[in-house]
Amino acid sequence: MSAALQQDPRDRGGPAQPLLIVENLTKHFPVRGGLLNRQVATVQAVDEVSFSVRKGETLGIVGESGCGKSTTARLLMRLMNPDAGSVVFDGDPVGEKRGISVSDMRRQMQMVFQDSYTSLNPRMTMAESIAYAPRMHGLGRKEAYDRAENLLSRVGLNPRQYARRYPHELSGGQRQRVNIARALALEPRLVILDEAVAALDKSVEAQVLNLLSDLKESLNLTYLFISHDLNVVEYMSDRVMVMYLGRVVEAGPVESIYRHPRHPYTRALFASKPTLDPDRRTTEMPLTGDPPNPINPPSGCRFRTRCAFAQPRCAETLPLLAAPFDGDADPSHVVACHIPEAQAAVAVHHA
Amino acid sequence: MSFTTMDVERPTLTAAPMLDAPAAPTPGYWKSVGQRLLHDKVTMAVTLVLFGILFITLGAPLVTHADPYQGSVLARLKPIGTPGHWLGTDETGRDLWTRLCYGGRLSLLAAILPVTISLFVGGFLGILAGYAGGWLNTLIMRTMDVFYAFPSILLAIAICGLLGNGLSNSIIALAVVFIPPMVRVAETVTTQSRNLDFVEAARASGTTTLQIIRYHVLANVLGPILVYATSLISVSIILSAGLSFLGLGVTPPQAEWGLMLNSLRQAIYAQPYVAALPGLMIFLTSMCFNLMSDGFRSAMDVRLNK
């Protein structure tokens, strides 16, 4: 794998250089109102999010709706501008003088959206949609369409059958395959999959996930896999990052997080996961209620209002990501929680 | 791993497990719009009527040999069916069929030209406001709101009154009246398509704003704008006829349907059928444009494709 990576002429930092380093990424949306349209509040959609993605791995991002997963993806693609923070792509800071420009970054980083129907232009055929970006970047018409047909067959759609179809003539799974093909048309190195399989039914979802795994292997891709579905994230990811109200609460290797979650929120999330395996049935109480309003998040630890272990110091200081207290975790496993009992999940008595 | 059991349906990468027979080629977008129009009987019928009207107006010398300005005192206000004047004559004895044919030229010009001007100006401003957003949107849209404050016919009369009467001034007045609604329609559809995922995807692919507007926004915006423009023509015919009826547009003795309606007004008791004929032409043309725009709208809707 690493030998194959080094063959990529665009690889600048070598296998040890993470493909993506994100530091303190922050996006606050102003809420305007009143007579003079003044800013009355701030939604802290993404707050000081830091992580890195190694070459060739899949980083899963999980969390409830509204926790900032999709905003993070849009910030990375620069579909919206971050308020603060830096993004380093393969050693080059994005959008800075000594780094690479946003448009150069976009040629190496592509995104697949959740809604397979609205993310395709209804007036373009499948081949046109896939060939659009390469053509605009200067590839000849014939070459671009050849590439589109090649990509269609790569994602399991016969080009003779589907190249000249319109989006409404295809099923959801077929459209999502086309979206994947379009994302691959610029030969990116990193693909952000923003709830890419969430809208598909289970059997189609499994096919698309297997397709994604195969493509990753054959094209040396790196994935940022965003989903609310814990089973899917476990299946796809090498490492997992758990987000709550715009902040990262826990991150680490997938086995370590799934086998021994330290943050009470992560455990509550897993408790809500349906499982058919009686040995894996959890006794943790699932979360109730909605997450607090992100316009006015709780002070200190944002999870404390729903946490069974909350103590006064949780309201006073914001917990930062650090190694768990019990010490026997994987060294890259980090958790943002002050309370050792909460990380160990002792003292809980369920009804 | 709960998904390993589903590997049975794993698709292979190179050979697609799909049907091998080549599909019937799907025609291009505008081609399929044309095909759907050909199957729409109402739209085809009104389009034929409009072509007929266009023929008798532009080709007036071919369908009538009379002079539209030459009247006869002896032949004043003849009824429909008079030999030599099959649609009768007007109050100065001019052949009405000839007047209707020649009058259509100015009526159609005074109706279509303002809409064309507003299509370009309003469409451009609307797409700009919709795609740019922010302060530019506010500036353009609030300026248009000022024009919206006046009823359209009053605004047209006011501008005509300001500029003085005449054909070109009535065209300018109507263009000004039609620009705000055109901007609003263009802005609405552009704002909608700007926020669609496929435009976001195009932005994410690193292509330039102009390329995105050309390939993704324009194609989806042009249809609704053109349909709206066609429906505006029907309003424009009535408004421009109204302006000349009030004496603000075309001046006598030129032939124009609205003006003819005005001058035949006095003869409404003597020859009601003859007096109603210019109005009938206005109604027919206006209705045909309206029905045609309906037909265009449904033909352009990809999702209605069966």
Concise account of the structure shown:
The complex is a heterodimer of chains A (351) and B (306). Chain A is built from 13 helices and eleven strands.
Question: Mind sketching the topology for me?
Answer:
The complex is a heterodimer of chains A (351) and B (306).
Chain A (H helix, E strand, L loop, with lengths): L1 H6 L12 E14 L4 E16 L4 E5 L6 H8 L7 E6 L2 E2 L8 H7 E4 L13 H11 L4 H14 L4 H4 L9 H13 L5 E5 L7 H18 L2 E5 L3 H7 L2 E6 L2 E7 H6 L4 H8 L40 H5 L17 E2 L4 H5 L7
Chain B lengths: L28 H10 L2 H18 L1 H4 L32 H37 L1 H15 L3 H12 L3 H28 L2 H8 L4 H37 L11 H7 L8 H29 L6
Helix pairs in contact in B: 1-11, 2-4, 2-11, 4-5, 4-7, 4-9, 5-7, 6-7, 7-9, 8-9, 9-10, 9-11, 10-11
Describe the structure.
- The complex is a heterodimer of chains A (351) and B (306).
- Chain A folds into two domains: 236 residues, Rossmann fold (3-Layer(aba) Sandwich), CATH 3.40.50; 82 residues, no CATH class.
- Helices cover 32% and strands 21% of the residues of chain A.
- Chain A is built from 13 helices and eleven strands.
- In chain A, strands 6-7-8-3-9-10-11 form a seven-stranded mixed β-sheet, with helices on both faces. In chain A, strands 2-1-4-5 form a four-stranded antiparallel β-sheet.
- The longest helix of chain A has 18 residues.
- The N and C termini of chain A lie far apart (50 Å).
- The N terminus and C terminus of chain A are likely disordered.
- With 306 residues, chain B is mainly alpha-helical.
- Chain B has one domain: MetI-like (MetI-like fold).
- Chain B contains eleven helices and no strands.
- In chain B, helix 4 runs parallel beside helix 7, helix 7 runs antiparallel to helix 9 and helix 10 runs antiparallel to helix 11.
- The N terminus of chain B is likely disordered.
- Classes of the chains: A alpha/beta (351), B mainly alpha (306).
- The interface between A and B is large, with 55 and 43 residues.
